[in-house]
Backbone:
């Protein structure tokens, strides 16, 4: 595998992954797969009916935002000496795979297309508000 920007910030042209870069890549992949499978399991457990409000995606995205708020406070303010793979595994990996902007966009398009424009617009407005409130609230609570 070739890369032009190693994870340690040095610039390199061509070459193979370093041992550290391979570990980071593996952590992101493992976390991302687990996060995506968790989101999929929740969508099976709590499906959105056709034309219904996509509560599952909203809750998943808000919960993921709350979790990233907690994670970032913990690894940047509380425990600055965390293992270097914590952020790639849990932040970029698990929470990146767990939350989903693309499903959010598809849900809105689908609602508008089938004649539920008001529900789609409500979802469009509510999601970023819920996401920001979740990050801020979780970060605030973690700092306390």
Residues:
């Amino acid at each position: 595998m070739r890369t032009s920007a190693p994870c340690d910030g040095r610039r390199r042209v061509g070459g193979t992954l370093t041992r550290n870069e391979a570990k980071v890549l593996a952590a992101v992949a493992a976390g991302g797969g687990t996060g995506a499978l968790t989101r999929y399991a929740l969508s099976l457990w709590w499906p959105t009916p056709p034309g219904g409000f996509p509560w599952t995606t909203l809750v998943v995205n808000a919960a993921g935002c709350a979790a990233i708020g907690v994670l970032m406070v913990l690894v940047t303010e509380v425990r600055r000496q965390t293992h270097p793979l914590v952020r790639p595994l849990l932040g970029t990996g698990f929470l990146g795979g767990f939350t989903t902007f693309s499903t959010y966009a598809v849900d809105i398009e689908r609602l508008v297309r089938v004649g539920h424009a008001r529900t789609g617009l409500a979802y469009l407005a509510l999601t970023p508000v819920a996401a920001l409130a979740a990050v801020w609230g979780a970060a605030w609570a973690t700092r306390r």
Q: What stands out?
A: DSSP finds five helices and no strands in the chain. Residues 19-143 form one domain. The CA atoms of residues 115 and 142 lie 41 Å apart. The chain has one domain: 19-143.
